């Protein structure tokens, strides 16, 4: 902010300089010049100008059309995630007085798009995305590695969230590898996710919390397989077919990070969002998208080769990629 202070000081000199310049002109010209300088000084003093050079926390309306386009063009095979995330974010950001923060829990096997979606969400909420000062990523194995330090982590987590929400009410917090998080740590933020108007003088109601977890992947796969074996399309799977099973499953799963968590017990997680296992056709979509992202022409022979190098399960049917699209980038490097 020192830069902003110096800038305001420089701006304050404008009227003095202008006064010397305009004394050579007739009174009408003097009045116009001083009026113009006053308008310029007032404009430059506002936060808008400073925010052109530094990132500012500003609550702009969510561009739902842009978010929809990003999800539909970049996320493959996840009709449920696309629908729920679009509706949840749009509804939350359009509500000027939410009663609680938006809390999303994303579940599914690795490579199905959970991290990718969190990146898309971050970019649509804050222009700098994951590089924004107002988007905060926690990785369980990196930030909370030692089980014996749970109390320390809880205190640090509370202070970190409190400080960042104080600086920006619409902060985004992403917790990756929730299935590797020691039970109990996440309950430290329960007061911030609840229906309180303020906690110690701070409102958390406009913040967004996103949990990413592999936990529940087996439950999601079972449902997807049941539909496939019954001859039904995966697009027929609805949120009601999976959300209740997911919430109970991760609550009772000691390795979910949400084991016996008060966040579930108090119904503070707004949506449990399933990410379905990806099929062969979805892997090919990922390969095409990666080739386009690299500025290369799409070569269908290479697309097929990369997709066929992936391994699929179950053993007999071989329907779903066991790594999703996670290794597409590295495999494409060999072609």
UniProtKB/TrEMBL annotation:
<dbReference type="GO" id="GO:0019894">
    <property type="term" value="F:kinesin binding"/>
</dbReference>
<keyword id="KW-0547">Nucleotide-binding</keyword>
<keyword id="KW-0067">ATP-binding</keyword>
<dbReference type="InterPro" id="IPR017378">
    <property type="entry name" value="Torsin_1/2"/>
</dbReference>
<keyword id="KW-0539">Nucleus</keyword>
<dbReference type="Pfam" id="PF21376">
    <property type="entry name" value="TOR1A_C"/>
</dbReference>
<feature type="signal peptide">
    <location>
        <begin position="1"/>
        <end position="24"/>
    </location>
</feature>
<feature type="binding site">
    <location>
        <begin position="108"/>
        <end position="115"/>
    </location>
    <ligand>
        <name>ATP</name>
    </ligand>
</feature>
<dbReference type="GO" id="GO:0031965">
    <property type="term" value="C:nuclear membrane"/>
</dbReference>
<dbReference type="InterPro" id="IPR049337">
    <property type="entry name" value="TOR1A_C"/>
</dbReference>
<dbReference type="GO" id="GO:0071763">
    <property type="term" value="P:nuclear membrane organization"/>
</dbReference>
<dbReference type="GO" id="GO:0034504">
    <property type="term" value="P:protein localization to nucleus"/>
</dbReference>
<dbReference type="GO" id="GO:0005524">
    <property type="term" value="F:ATP binding"/>
</dbReference>
<protein>
    <recommendedName>
        <fullName>Torsin</fullName>
    </recommendedName>
</protein>
<dbReference type="InterPro" id="IPR027417">
    <property type="entry name" value="P-loop_NTPase"/>
</dbReference>
<dbReference type="GO" id="GO:0016887">
    <property type="term" value="F:ATP hydrolysis activity"/>
</dbReference>
<keyword id="KW-0325">Glycoprotein</keyword>
<keyword id="KW-0472">Membrane</keyword>
<dbReference type="Pfam" id="PF06309">
    <property type="entry name" value="Torsin"/>
</dbReference>
<keyword id="KW-0378">Hydrolase</keyword>
<feature type="domain" description="Torsin-1A C-terminal">
    <location>
        <begin position="278"/>
        <end position="334"/>
    </location>
</feature>
<keyword id="KW-0732">Signal</keyword>
<keyword id="KW-0256">Endoplasmic reticulum</keyword>
<comment type="similarity">
    <text>Belongs to the ClpA/ClpB family. Torsin subfamily.</text>
</comment>
<dbReference type="InterPro" id="IPR010448">
    <property type="entry name" value="Torsin"/>
</dbReference>
<dbReference type="GO" id="GO:0005788">
    <property type="term" value="C:endoplasmic reticulum lumen"/>
</dbReference>
């Amino acid at each position: 902010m020192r830069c902003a202070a110096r800038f305001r000081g420089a701006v304050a000199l404008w009227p003095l300089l202008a006064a010397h310049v305009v004394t050579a002109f007739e009174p009408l010209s003097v009045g116009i010049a001083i009026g113009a300088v006053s308008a310029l000084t007032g404009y430059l003093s506002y936060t808008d100008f400073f925010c052109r050079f530094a990132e500012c926390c500003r609550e702009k309306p969510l561009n739902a059309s842009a978010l929809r386009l990003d999800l539909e063009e970049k996320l493959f095979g996840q009709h449920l995630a696309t629908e729920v995330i679009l509706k949840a974010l749009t509804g939350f950001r359009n509500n000027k007085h939410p009663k609680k923060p938006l809390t999303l829990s994303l579940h599914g096997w690795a490579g199905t798009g959970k991290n990718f979606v969190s990146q898309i969400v971050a970019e649509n909420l804050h222009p700098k995305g994951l590089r924004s000062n107002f988007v905060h990523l926690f990785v369980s194995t990196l930030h909370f590695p030692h089980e014996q330090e749970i109390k320390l982590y809880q205190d640090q987590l509370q202070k970190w969230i409190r400080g960042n929400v104080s600086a920006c009410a619409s902060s985004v917090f992403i917790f990756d590898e929730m299935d590797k998080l020691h039970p109990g740590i996440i309950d430290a933020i329960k007061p911030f996710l609840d229906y309180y108007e303020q906690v110690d003088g701070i409102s958390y109601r406009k913040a967004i919390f996103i949990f990413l977890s592999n936990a529940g992947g087996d439950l999601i796969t079972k449902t997807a397989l049941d539909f496939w074996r019954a001859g039904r399309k995966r697009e027929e799977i609805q949120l009601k077919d999976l959300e209740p099973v997911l919430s109970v499953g991760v609550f009772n799963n000691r390795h979910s990070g949400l084991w016996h968590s008060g966040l579930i017990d108090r119904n503070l997680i707004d949506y449990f969002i399933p990410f379905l296992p990806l099929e062969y056709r979805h892997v090919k979509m990922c390969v095409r998208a990666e080739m386009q992202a690299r500025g290369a022409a799409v070569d269908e022979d290479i697309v097929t080769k990369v997709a066929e190098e992936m391994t699929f399960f179950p053993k007999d049917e071989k329907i779903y990629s066991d790594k999703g699209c996670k290794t597409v980038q590295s495999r494409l490097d060999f072609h």
